[in-house]
Amino acid sequence: MTALPLGADPLASLARPPVAAILTLEQVDADVFRGLSHTRARRTYGGQTLGQALVAAGLTVERAHRPHSLHGHFVHPGRSDLPVDYVVDRVRDGGSFTTRHVRAIQRERTVLLATVSFQRDEDGLTHQDMAPTPCPPPEALPRFEDSVAADASDHEWRRLLLSNVGVEFRFPEEYPRLAGRRGTKLPPRQRAWIRTPDRLGDESLVHAAGFTYCSDLFLLSAALPPHGRHIDTPGLKLASLDHTVWLHRTFRADEWHLYEQHGYWMGGGRGISRGHLYDRDGTLVASTAQEGLLRFR
């Protein structure tokens, strides 16, 4: 084994999972598609199951209809060492809207139930009643690996994050998890520039699934800063319960977008966060919401 130079970060060159491969499904039967994790994580990343479910649904829909919403319920945790089969039910084929129900199954156990809706492109009234808070562009910000390199007390959480989730991200402010590790209390808001490290081709369905894959990252943890906690706080059990993605227009998931998140409620062992995705011009291109378990034993 080659020794690292003095002061070198052992995680700086860690490869992220291949998102393009993760979103490439194998058809194993009529309206049944199989996806793989391509990671060594013990549990499946939730965004992977959501993204693969959207691809499976889209493979049964004519291309004139594009996905505009996905509503998913996580039923059981998935295992990354096993494939997941996505069984698609063709609920409705309409002139304007098409609906699919997807059941993600692993060894006869349901891990996700999702409803995906597609719409034919059409013109209409437009407005958006929100705008992102100004911040530096991603090129002016350090890579995530560099921004947290000073936190050398524990490499393991960084290794797990970088090796198990295929998302590139850069924070305009301090990564809130670091404040939580210090016990510092902050407002329930966080934001990051995000994109997939892989180029995803030109198919709009794959880019919609690419953001859906990214959308689960950090979202629920936005409810923790007011409590001075983070997702690895001893005794904390954190799990996504349901997740919604609304896609307002087509965009490329492999290009930088600003993902603002707000953890606006917590109680009864649960928390709810919402997210807004903006392009560089401040145009709102997607919105998300998630409820999850945030329980202390």
TrEMBL record:
Superkingdom, taxonomy of origin: Bacteria
SUPFAM superfamilies per record: Thioesterase/thiol ester dehydrase-isomerase
Similarity section: Belongs to the C/M/P thioester hydrolase family.
The keyword NAD belongs to this UniProt entry's keyword annotation: no
Pfam families reported in the protein's UniProt record: 4HBT_3 (PF13622), Acyl_CoA_thio (PF02551)
Domain Acyl-CoA thioesterase-like N-terminal HotDog stretches: 41-119
Protein name as catalogued: Acyl-CoA thioesterase
Acyl-CoA thioesterase 2 C-terminal domain segment(s): 182-293
Keywords: Hydrolase
